[in-house]
Amino acid sequence: MHWSELPREALLDRRIGDLGVTIEDSPLAPRLAALDRELEARGLLFRPYTWLSTEWFAPDGATGFAIPFFLAHPRLVRLERSQMLEVEGGSAAECMKLLRHETAHAIDNAYGLRRRRRFRDIFGRPGLPYRASYSPDPTSRDYVLHLDYWYSQSHPLEDFAETFAVWLGPGSRWRKRYAGWPALEKLLYVDELMDEIRDAPPKLRTRRREEPAHGVQRTLRAYYAQKKAHYAEEATPAFDGQLERAFALPEDAAPRAPRLAPFLREHRRDLVARVARSTGQHRYLLDHVVREMIARAKSRELRLSSSRESSLLDAAVVLTSLTGHFLYGGSPRYHR
């Protein structure tokens, strides 16, 4: 029996290096082809190389980047979602965002962009140490909005990578979207910088691959135990407390009530639009909070405590309250 047909518990005992997954003939192949077309459309000569590993990362001094192994097979995507409640890069749109982001790190390494004085003036000191966690300002307009958790605020090099990713994305209309934002200066600089190097061969060429998936001897079970321990520290008690109070149910009624997580997922766009209209808050922030609510509702196995109409109103009230917690109660610290 192929490992993809094994039940979850048996699959968890398989070693990552024994799975034999590759980028070729996987769902990643057409996405990387799309990335190539985006770079070509911008007239860029540079192309990053890629390999499978345990997470997304671009090593310093490498002109390529790693992609998580689980994105190379639908069965592993399902396992990742069952273990972590979400899949980083699981949808085509999110995967493309991450591919663009990591390409920025690779192109920085290839051309030594961080060593330029204006680069440092625009984005900050690239030599600053990477901290294990950071607290973003959700109201800031000094940074582009791209990956979750306001990731551009985590480090100057991530600020550049996020800015490049927004610049590269087809149809992003960044000039209009960021008009009047201080972040527009960063986008204009990236546009100028890419125009300068688009036809130039890279100053550095590498094929180095760190921690390739085929050499990882950990089992999937050990991999997820370590991963869960890492993310457990990100818990924000306010989410759990407010959700449980708003959707409290008598114990004997719980098994018969609809689950809250699918309900929130179904009404996600409506909730964001409704609360954005009434509060004026940025949709990016509201959508982030709704997705946090969905994850917590699923992990706590919460259910609807009233009619669907009342539950939608309750969810909007919780979303408004939790958004205020982000803005005025101190932003949570996010792991890098």
Number of domains: 2
Strand content: under 5%
Secondary structure: helix percent? 40-55%
Work out the number of β strands.
4
User: Which parts are unreliable, with pLDDT below 50 for 5 consecutive residues or more?
Assistant: none
| Secondary-structure class | mainly alpha
Question: What is the mean pLDDT?
Answer: 90
Order of helices and strands: HHEEHHHEHHHHHHHHHE
Distance between the termini: 38 Å
Helix segment count? 14
State the major sheet: 2 strands, parallel
Shape: globular
Strand neighbour order, sheet with most strands: 1-2
Q: Report the radius of gyration as a whole number of Å.
A: 21 Å
Describe this structure in words.
The chain has 336 residues and is mainly alpha-helical. The chain has 2 domains: 3-213, no CATH class; 237-335, no CATH class. 50% of the residues lie in helices and 4% in strands. The chain has helices spanning 8-12, 28-41, 74-84, 92-111, 117-123, 156-168, 174-177, 183-197, 220-232, 237-246, 260-266, 268-279, 283-299, 308-328, and strands at residues 49-53, 64-68, 133-134, 334-335. The protein has a two-stranded parallel sheet. A two-stranded antiparallel sheet has the order 3-4. α12 packs across α14. The chain is globular, with a radius of gyration of 21 Å. The chain starts with 7 loop residues before the first helix and ends with a strand.
